[in-house]
Amino acid sequence: MTLRQAQGPGQAQGPSTALLTDRYELTMIDAALRDGTADRPCVFELFGRRLPGARRFGVVAGTGRLLEALRDFRFGDDELRYLRDNGVVSAQTLSFLEGYRFAGTIRGYREGELYFPGSPILTVEGSFAEAVILETIALSILNHDSAIANAAARMSIAAGDRPLSEMGSRRAAEHSAVAAARAAYIAGFGATSNLEAGRTWGIPTMGTAAHAWTLLHDTEEEAFRSQVEALGAQTTLLIDTYDIRTGVETAVRVAGTSLGGVRIDSGDLPTVAAEVRAQLDRLGATGTRITVTSDLDEFAIAALAASPVDAYGVGTSVVTGSGAPTAGMVYKLVARQDAAGGWVAVAKASTDKASTGGRKAAFRTLEHGTATSELIAVSDGFESIDTPAEHPDARPLQVTLVDHGEADPAFAGPAGVAQARAHHARVREELPITALALSRSDPALPTVYVDAAR
Amino acid sequence: MTLRQAQGPGQAQGPSTALLTDRYELTMIDAALRDGTADRPCVFELFGRRLPGARRFGVVAGTGRLLEALRDFRFGDDELRYLRDNGVVSAQTLSFLEGYRFAGTIRGYREGELYFPGSPILTVEGSFAEAVILETIALSILNHDSAIANAAARMSIAAGDRPLSEMGSRRAAEHSAVAAARAAYIAGFGATSNLEAGRTWGIPTMGTAAHAWTLLHDTEEEAFRSQVEALGAQTTLLIDTYDIRTGVETAVRVAGTSLGGVRIDSGDLPTVAAEVRAQLDRLGATGTRITVTSDLDEFAIAALAASPVDAYGVGTSVVTGSGAPTAGMVYKLVARQDAAGGWVAVAKASTDKASTGGRKAAFRTLEHGTATSELIAVSDGFESIDTPAEHPDARPLQVTLVDHGEADPAFAGPAGVAQARAHHARVREELPITALALSRSDPALPTVYVDAAR
């Protein structure tokens, strides 16, 4: 019987995630178990030194996925055999790993929350061994998902009230595609083409037809007729396989003026969209919607604001973070107990990668509902950190995600995604107007460090 | 009993990959089953219109992973229930999907092979329904893995004989990280930090220690001493947590002059590497190797060619494709039978996304062992395509990957990875010297289309 099977239902539910880990985490545990430091109480922090792509705000995403990965982070027979057969760690460490289950506490930003340079997105408290081992899995998930959410939020801002669909699965690795659909949905997209994202995370799925559909048939008209017969006149017809003008005419002739929509996937979109809209209107199809899908990013979407476009489908740019494919967050030891049991704030000294030691809590200060700063209270001890007295109305940004090993189920599964999406929409309303510009700039809010009240 | 369990051993081995698919593939099948075109014999082609990042060559990677995904591409009870409950497709289509198993033929470039614009990287032959459904999974895997392999190959060229390790898992989504380690290894990296990549694909794993290791201890000396005691003097010590000069001195004092290596993760690397080398030599540690790991990409590696660096560790840039995170390949219908059973070459007409219709085979012409062109023979029928008579020595680039549903096991698993790595090293030797430059440019080889011999 494997360790995983022994946990019973309600515990691990998927394949083990434990080897999605950099080797050095295990060799550090190996050495720490020998020298007695493995048990030292530690505080690790996950944060970004800067925002991806010199943007004005960051968006936290992946938290719910991390909690599920943590649930499945167990070393079963297969994982232990690989480590033993390859001499990665000693027998003592194998024994530690066999019994490993994260029993510490993780506080962090809600999924969908905004963040800024230095924001303590996760604060992981536990022994050195139990906390250091989560470095790779935590960073992998949050760096990827937050990068996507950041790009998606900018596109969502640029799109305004027009619906956005994510359809970039083919331009992302197959499992990243599912995570990307999820992150984009949290950050304001309304649907995805990815069926697994629909099944796993409850995200609405959508789709039209490919050029292959038209090319499969002997004529465009046959292809349209078949699609309308199968899916109804409310379907969306792809009109640019051959000549767009002919495509529109054929579409309306076949489907009637109640045709749901047409999709344009090529050409100079502002020009083409205007022409197609005029042609549809002339043909009486005034209610037929225009979806555009050709290599859109936040800038192209913004440039279409005055065009008669009803919906956007975004592929490559959202799943690759629109130029910033990783959020660049890091996972650092910021405090630990010393041999005498006192707390020590620690930080690397290198000038180009400096960080701020000490356990932290974060608050967003607001004036008349608009955010004014990211307030980070730094403690040199381990007591709980209160809202700074000078800012009694500041909004606390961290919640307890995992309490002594028990993950809060509210953040998991489709319900967690829905909650994160709602939270993101809410907190985005707090941003100052300057934060909504798309150009590269400094963060929209200053990060202010204060000493935690004693 | 689920469909998957019913297949018996040797068939599906992992979770179903069938929903890693865009919804429109299934709705097209829905409509095609109604109108009778679902069974039309078709040829789909996976190719890139251009090379990622205006580079001089592309590298095919992911093929072995695709074959494994194909093995697990089945619609079991869970997948069918999701589709039924969400009204994605009709009952007729659910029934088709329940029995789905790809029974067609896939010819394609070997994994590790170079490619150029228009190269027919995969040629997928089957009925419309059985072939169109593979669009997303095939593109997801090849677009991601080839983008990583392309960046990795350039880094490998820049590094010359110095070993390269991939350590970017934390900057990629957790499963992409494993695929990235695999692609980088195929393209010339020697090791990865990712343990799952070691387990699944047989890639050598490596690791040193994090700054957290030093910060955990009361002094740097204690950290170094503990690491050397646990891992031996051949270990690599991270020397830049505090002052580098002191770090080097402490490292040699603790480990002796037989210290295996030091790692530098910050600072101006050419300057710092030279200083560290001089200091190590003064201290008598002339055999101690220097590994550098701070935000390297192919350009930074090239800039260190004259520096006393012994090994490179590359993170973010390799797992994100160094500015080109997706290869931008597409999957297009290029030929099909018409109602009368004749073959028709098809292609989208849009001027900005045009492609070449017809079934193809590809050959690399060589002169004195150096590649001179990517020769693509285009057929308007379905007979096998011979090497063009004018180029009898041209190297055929496609092999049969899947023959009537049966994947060639030689391309799967760790053995497939080893073979791909060897193949890549071999074919890279054929590149003209101009192809090795790192600057943006045109493809190193022209793509030449010829009519297939009749």
Automatic annotation (TrEMBL), chains A, B:
Keywords from UniProt, A to Z, are: Glycosyltransferase, Ligase, Phosphoprotein, Pyridine nucleotide biosynthesis, Transferase
Q: What class of enzyme is it?
A: ligase
Q: Which domain of life is it from?
A: Bacteria
The family database entries (NCBIfam families) matched by this protein are listed as: NAPRTase_put, PRK09243.1-5, PRK12484.1
Q: Write out the PTM section of this UniProt entry.
A: Transiently phosphorylated on a His residue during the reaction cycle. Phosphorylation strongly increases the affinity for substrates and increases the rate of nicotinate D-ribonucleotide production. Dephosphorylation regenerates the low-affinity form of the enzyme, leading to product release.
Name this protein carries in UniProt: Nicotinate phosphoribosyltransferase
- Please give the catalytic activity noted in the UniProt record: 5-phospho-alpha-D-ribose 1-diphosphate + nicotinate + ATP + H2O = nicotinate beta-D-ribonucleotide + ADP + phosphate + diphosphate
Report the source organism: Microbacterium flavum
| Pathway(s) the chain acts in | Cofactor biosynthesis; NAD(+) biosynthesis; nicotinate D-ribonucleotide from nicotinate: step 1/1
InterPro entries assigned to the protein according to its UniProt record, in alphabetical order: Aldolase_TIM (IPR013785), NAPRTase_N (IPR040727), Nic_PRibTrfase-Fam (IPR007229), Nic_PRibTrfase_pncB (IPR006405), Nicotinate_pribotase-like_C (IPR036068)
